[in-house]
Sequence to fold (888 residues):
Amino acid sequence: MMNDPRIEELLDFVRFPTVSAQKIHRTDMLACADWLVAKFRRMGLDARAASTPGFPVVVAKSLRDPNKKTVLIYGHYDVQPADPLDLWSSPPFNPIIRNGRIIGRGASDNKGQILAHIFGVEEAIKEGELPVNVVFLIEGEEEIGSAHLGTFLEAHRDELVCDAIAISDTGMAAEGYPTLSYALRGIATLEVQVKGPAMDLHSGIYGGAVANPVTAAARLVASLHDADGRVAIEGFYDTVQPMANWEREAAADSPVSDDAIAAQAGVTVLWGEAGYSAVERVGARPTAEINGFGGGYQGEGSKTVLPAEAFFKVSFRLVPDQRPDTVLALARRHFEKHCPPGVTLTIINGHGGDPFFLDPTLPQGMAAQRALEEVFGKKPALTREGGSIPILTEFQRTLRHPALLLALASPDCRAHAPDENFPIENFLMGIRLNKALLRELAKS
Amino acid sequence: MMNDPRIEELLDFVRFPTVSAQKIHRTDMLACADWLVAKFRRMGLDARAASTPGFPVVVAKSLRDPNKKTVLIYGHYDVQPADPLDLWSSPPFNPIIRNGRIIGRGASDNKGQILAHIFGVEEAIKEGELPVNVVFLIEGEEEIGSAHLGTFLEAHRDELVCDAIAISDTGMAAEGYPTLSYALRGIATLEVQVKGPAMDLHSGIYGGAVANPVTAAARLVASLHDADGRVAIEGFYDTVQPMANWEREAAADSPVSDDAIAAQAGVTVLWGEAGYSAVERVGARPTAEINGFGGGYQGEGSKTVLPAEAFFKVSFRLVPDQRPDTVLALARRHFEKHCPPGVTLTIINGHGGDPFFLDPTLPQGMAAQRALEEVFGKKPALTREGGSIPILTEFQRTLRHPALLLALASPDCRAHAPDENFPIENFLMGIRLNKALLRELAKS
Fold:
């Protein structure tokens, strides 16, 4: 298996340090887009790296046969930042194979998953039986909010016309368990910068008379949740839709236990909003999470300083019918209202994306469930995912056809974390799944 | 003035990057101690760098004439860390002179001040009129809690016997204003480490089901103060002595206005415990200050992670009769009691020091006030200082004579902060003050 050229190509793909959040990686981003274009051209597809005001979108199309249905396959070649680097057991952009898994930043999210689809199509072409027209759309800004993809979809709507959208950027409910995700949370991010004195002050000479911006920032963070783990921003839950009965039943049937989630996360006890299981908390309930907080002395030992400033970064995960703009406005009002005296706030809105919801009994949804059952040999789990693919609602709105989320990532893939990994088994199953899916969608 | 050899020597002294908190500077520390020993030997004093389990203590003595009183002059050659480096307008250990001030880490705290005393003694010796026996004691661990100085004082009590202790490591009440500080706050420091999941997690996949250690740390920080700015740790104020009437009058007579403190700190509004002026808050009231807080993503842009851990560093400033050990025990109980579910705490106690208090009407205190009035031409302010010199109470306990705190630092000296500075004027006044002080103490 180690000499499988498909795996060698995946390793090559992961070696590009395509961190879209960091300007220093611009050249790597462009090189990776070119690598994809070359791959598609070798497969005989019409491919290009289409420029945007940000990073290019790679588009690749088979000849469009009007007698066939068309499937758009979406993925992304950008990845999350790799830090903290010292917690990786091997270099994030020099992938290795260990225990049957490829370890590297982006191995699972999303390079391994999208490349499985690419190989599925390549094999179908070689076998002379591509049952549908395919359009690949692989962007470079998913991890920073897909800022330019919406405009791109609008501008290229004609060449992107399709009957279904296939995406593998989600996690299996359990290892090797076929999974169709019918909902994803939306997202809204912001950063709060808290400014106090003009410079770091001696904590003895000024401490007690000047407000400490780190303490103020901590008080703002503490104000975000009540004692029951609910988000304490006024109006935050106003538009949240309760789960339907069939959804609570699907969640109860989930192959994922609370214990399994705790074990994957490496915690002894779970935490969260009262009245919901862990599966429901991450899939169907909104959150406010602190992604980073910094202020004052970060080094060894002590430094008796009253810091000049502090910051914290928040991401909200949203469920239907919450909207990012509304949540960001509510959050801004909350922070301004709760701002302690003696400091000033700068609130910077980040990227946002609507929550996604698909009725899994639509024809395309049924085709996806059949393909999953065929390849994995059991009835797929229907899940709500906690993560976000902000552009999904844009796809459905612009292209007017359902987006099918077929999970290939393992539950312990460590996406966004050190030692992100992708099982070679999932990669090979993904290639088979692509072929079964295109066949079933051709019939749907 | 630029060619004054005394200023050149001060620049040389500041060039040693003597950061005692950072192991990498060990060689610099030893070199600086040797530099001081060489200086004292050139002055004709009996000098050595006495080793300790930490950094050496420099001891230098004149011949002990039994007919003269003996004055011990204390200072320190170690400095605070220089970071954040990017906020310095010139390199911290490559001092420059601008607007009559020497800018560099340690210029004010404590190299400029102790060197003024050294030059005072050097000039008196050259002029043939050293009116008292002098003992210099210059340590290298003041900024990290003087861990080994107490033992050193005990072990060398006989050679350190004296009638008064002179220290310039405090700030003038106002620019050029003679100041005798009769009280200093004590200190107690700790670091709290908050651990959550085994690794950084995807905030979408786990957010809402796993406790966030940054949020937990922020809630602990927020629990430290009540809405009136008082420390909310149970028992924290139990042993705090109220200010005497003469003290509140001295504070009201202070040349320092709340507006001046706000201007120095670069804030538009002050903050603090209700019922006290800013001068009283920093001098006579205890505090809990967050010196640093870190957790999760610190870089550019956003990273949607649920961090594995967070930390914060706290320093408490103490007033009579609070004790560091007691306060640290109360704080530990507070954090353990308020620890949110789903995370675990590790609490690491740091250095501590008792608060200091001296009756300024003792003969040595009156001699110091006369010397200050003679040199500065006005009646000195009697102040309580917010900072800490942890070893002070040890001096008084071991050597059984009063410690006199004669301020030479400017109110805007930016001690512990970027662009720390020391006016050349203060340096020259300090040399004169040393000579006047030794004369007055000889008569006291």
Observations:
- The domain at 186-240+286-353 of chain B is CATH 3.30.70.360 (Alpha-Beta Plaits).
- Chain B touches chain A through 95 residues (CB under 8 Å).
- Chain B has two domains: 5-184+355-443, 186-240+286-353.
